Fold these 3 entries.
Entry 1:
Amino acid sequence: MSTDTENTPWMKPRSGDFTTKKVERPTRDFEVQSYLPAVTKGLVQTMGAFFKNTKEMILGQKKDPVIESLSWGITTISYPEEKRPYTDRFRGLHRLTIRDDGSPRCVACLCCSTACPAQCIHIEAGEYSEGDPRRGYERYPAKFVIDELRCIFCGFCVEACPCDAIRMDTGLHAVPYDSREQFIYGKDLLMGMTGRDGSRLTENPRHEPGDPDHPGIDRERAH
Amino acid sequence: MEPLDQDLEEGELEMPADPMMLNMGPSHPAMHGTVRIVVELSGETITKADVQIGYLHRGFEKMCERGNWNQCYPCVDRLNYVSPMLNNVGFSLAVEKMLGVTVPERTQYYRVALGELARICDHLTCNGAMAMELGAFTPFLWYVRAREMIWDIFEEETGARVTHSFGRVGGMAKPPTAYFKDVVRATIPRVLAVLTESEGLLLKNRIFLDRLENVGKVSKEVALDLGWTGPTLRSTGVPYDVRRAHPYLVYDRFEFDIPVGTTGDNFDRFMCRQEEIRQSARILEQCLDQMPDDGPINIDDPRVVLPPKEEVYSTIEGTIQHFKIVMEGIKVPAGEVYSYTEGGNGELGFYLVSDGSGTPHRVRIRPPCFAITQALERMIVGAMIPDIVPTFGSLNMIGGECDH
């Protein structure tokens, strides 16, 4: 780590001259003091917007709240009939990606539950049974529970996952349920969620022993 | 029927002489961020005031000591929840100062751009809420409409509208989107147009002016004594801006004016914020012009920054490096550091102590509005009850930040 502090962002030399700008003080001329002209002008301004918006609403010319979000006029979205699309980077409900054979991609390394600032992920790792080609190479999540009420949707779990097993790209937000238990998402539910493109598969290219496309090099059959 | 006043003695018509105690808050529409003001009244004049903060204390500093350095970001987000990105930037700079690393130029510009957008949000909210509390509801809705445009940008960039958690030690979580510059360039004129139009409704309105002008005056000396910073200090006439006095990131490359007031009353504070939005727009314009389109976003140090995902998936070195950072955290060298940036309300300082492990030993924040709120008592004593509302509103006290 460099010790050069000359040009670091926090050790810049104090800038010599800067320009200041005096802010305006209110003008107390006749227009302001007599109150009515200014208020009339204000009313013209607001009523103009009111009539324009009403006209657009009645004639069905309401601006599209998403595409024309920067234009004047009503941009109210009548949820849930109209929905705002979420952005690509939107962090929504979690999902667990799966491999080609339908098993979870997760190897129960506990990275996500360590990185979670809200401690909302609970994982119990399970060992593959004797004879399974994956035994000794990786484990699987016997239990994978996310408490969506505790979750603060920071996305640290996705960043911490070393094998693209957990993602937040479902494009769904947490919906209200009747009871707290329904917010506790288990492994099956998380695996059943699809990404916005409908995919459930992982993009992690790594192939583990036991996968059909694994080159076949493992402890028993080395090179 | 007899006239009512027939039997009344002269003395019975007078008001009771005992002072009246009145609680404002903690849950009061004008007391944003849950603060309680106990005022003693003589008639409608305030003779004594007791400002009680702490209703939003969440133990942020202690929470930060639990995880590793990067896990502080969600907590930092929730300090000044009106401009979370400025807190992210401030905290990143503090940890990087301790590490002795400098983020790439592109990230510095990116941080400036996001920070200035957050500053605009902050000032829009403060001024809008202040106008609303004085009965001007339309400008508030317009301001919030403008703020919404900026929050849409934030959602595009970070994935969340308010709780971004976007800063990282040694860079940012993600590079700017391809259309970042275009979106900002398209949005800023709209925001400024809203600003101008709302000013048309407010600045000639006598009701609004009467409640702001010469109310809640603070002199230069008192403001400096109390440790004021930010727009509230500048409104008293002191041209102190951390971005100019101690430039960090790339602020020394931009041209902008420091708006200063003359009297330090509510009106000056309002106008300083209005002007700062315009100056922020100027900075943004220059920043976007100078910002490089490609280049690294994170520093190249495997001890600080997570490796790219492809490496983690396919190489053992990447996986090990990834696990070291996630499981043990960034090993920040032992020592202590004070780093300060210009937040939405003023000088946002972080005093960090590290013991060399991956966990912060102590995270202390210097919230700008803590110093500003302590002046409220002397500002409202002698004034009337209705003066509390604009005075308190113009201080822009944010509970999450003030109560640590």
Entry 2:
Amino acid sequence: METLEQIKARIEAAAPGARVEIVPNGSPANQPSLLLDAGHARAVAQFLRDDPALAFDYASNATGVDWPGKTIKEKIKVKKMVEGVEKEVEEVCEKKTPAYLEAVYHLYSMARKHGPLILRLRTANRADQVSLPSLTPVWRSCEFQEREIFDLYGIHFEGHPDLRRILMWPEFKDYPMRKDYVEPDDYEYEPTPHDAVLTRAREHYPGGTPA
Amino acid sequence: MSAGAISSELAEPAAEHQLLEVSLGPQHPSTHGVFRMDVSLDGEVVVKLKPVFGYLHRNHEKIAEKCSYLGSIPYTDRLDYICSLTNNWAYAMTVEKLAGLVAPERAEYIRVMLSELTRLINHSALAGFLLQDMGALGTPLMYAFREREKILDLFESLTGARMMCNYMRFGGCRCDLPPGWIEQTRSLVANFPSFLDEFEALLTGNEILLARTEGVGVLSKELAVNAGVTGPMLRATGVNYDIRKVDAYGVYGRFSFRVPLGERGDVFDRYMIRILEMRESLKILEQALRDIPAGPIIDPKAKLRNLRPKPGEAYGRIEGPKGELGFYLISDGGPNPYRYRIRPPSLINLTILEDMCLGQTIADAVVILGSVDIVLGEVDR
């Protein structure tokens, strides 16, 4: 297989305007990945599949990752006037790393028997701009996996033929795999007549019910 | 009223074109667990089929993200509960990649043997279930399960459990082979071909089996590759892609075995590929039993408890009995994985279930589903 730098150069030549960035991987596995911009992702995917030397005809794995963004506290030394004298004072300044959802694709070539090539796509944020282009038209194997990402992470895949919840039920509201998901206290909660009794009891003993 | 008006009136309701919607499952013996298919039927012919999942969903991935690396190993047993040992291996291998551990040679041999025994279990059980779906109630399944029991006994003597083995660890295996295990396995391997011969004499040439499987559920090469179908399903279409050969992970590079390929990609090919793969597995087992070296079974550097790999990510995959079983782990340097993803072969092989079933009868759809070989513990996770 060509090196990641070569593939990056080939992509940039084949899809003008595409921004490609190599994301390093710190683990001994040494599997760095390519970060694509969402606008050109479909064209790049098409190129990776159809180029005879690369021939990534098989998208093995597609998954989502949630990066909620952290606030990092840094201590910076600042010069300040303290009681009329200039002094160096340590100040804590907070930095926020960007929050986004990520879709990761692992590509292999069955024709040439090489791989993996790892693609990453990132949404603009985690709240309202969560759409990414679907790669299902290029690799059919992403169909259920992108549905799963939509279901569990809430990334909206544009151009997906059948984007519905797959593991959770259709009425379910939240995205359970996000890091800030809060489990309900009781999955099968239903108000019962007993609730009314409890409320009355609470009103009757404002200081808490006697044991 | 003219004659023309009457005929147009008669043609209008068109009762024979009304589609019948059937919800097949989730509680149905042919769905291999709690799996549902929303099927639209035109007479007996399937015109639409949408699989519905999630009845067994417990968000395994979220649980694992709250567990330590070691704590997830017993959970991986419950994915594809027929093949717990291959699940163990895929996970252990990915953590090894992530943390830079190397399993000793003896452990790798044990892993190969256990995963080939698992393949025997899976394929023989599948062949039995497939026949059951075709209406051969009981007998073939019991023949297959008889052999499965013998292998489960071996698992029990080694790991202490028959199905939920929880045996492999990153960096090696949990305990060494008990005395006599190699000899018992050798005699099982020597006797297994006679079971296969018996099974095949009973079934492979059987007229009813041929009628129910030949030309049914044909899958083309191009679609299979594009849809990410892996394992025996893929090789039945004639694509030569076996991860044991392509990646040669573990010590698979040292064994000589062939990869059986199908020609037409129908249900019969899928059945036959599995029978042939069992014979190849036996060859690997013979070689592994002959060559297994002495030595330690776990990397002394492997820190099982409180493992904190460096920040980074790894994707590891093995050729599971059902197809490519992959794990994708991201570490943020903490004691539990930041992201833990399973690439389930059963789920992804179902992507093209509708394509295979369209135009077939509902009875064939059941057989086609049986030939995909799904386990719902893995599909729903």
Entry 3:
Amino acid sequence: MAVEAMGHRLSPQGFLGRLGAGLLDVLQVLGEATLLFVATLRAVPAALHDRARVGTQIVRVGTDTLWIGGLLALFVGMVLVVQTADQIENVGQDILGPIVGLAMTKELGPVLMAFLLAGRAGSAMAAELGSMTVYDEINALRTMDIDPVRFLVMPRFIAATVTLPILVLYADFIGVWGGAAVVAVDPAITLPVRSYFARMFEWVHFRDILIGMTKALVFGMVASIVPCTFGLRTKGGAEGIAASTTSAVVWSFILILVWDFVIVRLTFGLD
Amino acid sequence: MAEPTPKTRGVTVLLEGIRKSYEGVPVLRGVDLEVAAGEILAIVGQSGTGKSVLLRQIIGLERPDAGRITVGGVELQRYLAMSPEEKPFRIGMVFQSAALLASLTVAENVSLRLRERGRHSPAEVAAITRHALQQVELAGTEEKLPSELSGGMRKRASIARALAIEPELILYDEPTADLDPILTEEIGRLIARIRTTRGATQIIVTHNLPLARSVADRIAVLAEGRIAECIPPRELGASRHPLTREFVRASGLGA
């Protein structure tokens, strides 16, 4: 099928040329991701008929992320307690609970789980869709009047968007208990576990959990739409699939951080 | 449940002045071609001359830069804009790579469009799937994954998938690429049998001249982005076109 002519690309000359080409490429990816996002939202009502496919993807995303996510959250909670205790010698250890609670619910839980989802499930999405694009499976769907967005992207989008908030709650829970375990057994920490939780509940409000959930929802969308975008724009053979997968993960990470800042800024000072 | 009745109809295909370029490099430079209803047309040409590109224009996966495509009397863009229910005929395509969905079984692949449309009962879908697989002699492979099939079986499963929608037009992109001569002959017999049982119009892109000669009513030679000539197989030997002569010589079909 390859047409030699398709391989000819104008390569920009000089620094400015390459910079311009790079910027255009960035804009193109963002444009394609936005269009795919809109098309996917339009396809969401079809999820009622595609419950089996959505369910399969939820299980896949969940099992891809659950154990490693739990392990990650556990150690992050534990490290957070030890590291903070080391830094706040003069302030008093009763701040450990609020720090672990707020850090996990508002920032570390959503961002770490989103990174994990993008790295595990997202890379799998990009590779799978990339392979389907390269080997004409996407075109085969089109020739059968089957919309690839509805058939492939929408179930993955819903799975990631629904699963990530659940994973974040799970990570928050494990992270907080990981911190509590260290508080309980580490001789360097004199704070009673009861005080750790009491101070945490004083500081962590429902609003903080809601902000974490909002982040998880947005990050779930990013961590599925970006990999699907790269999967569907894959060109070339195995090399193209590998390049798409890598780009999908890197772009997901960057856009998760950008949206993290946007949400933090928008919710700044909210009571 | 009765087996699905064979269809005996095809559609005409008319290409007028089809041009297509990629990044300024012309691939198709004005292709004119007319295919009669029920005809088997083979398009041959050297690798990289745009045979597959031409097929992609006909099925609407790509849009030509210029020219007009009419299938079954309907302008292609109008056909593509129709909902699946409105379409007056169906087009099936067999891709070079077979393009079976790796995560689905053979039966799921073959019945995919029927299940997605939701207009047939599960029993009807099963019957149509079974019939399509029997036609390509793949009965018994329903539960296998594409990765468990040989190259030839994958191609035949792909043909079964095209047949399951009862198409009036079937397009084949290099259906015998990477297949040995025995499997190539098998695919050729299958294409001929589809004409007998269904009467669908079939367009085959191939660089396998023996296959083209054995199954096609006419052979179109694509050279330099245009149809250099379109002749019945029996006239191949008498062709004066240098590319056709070279193809005949290289395929060992010469005198």
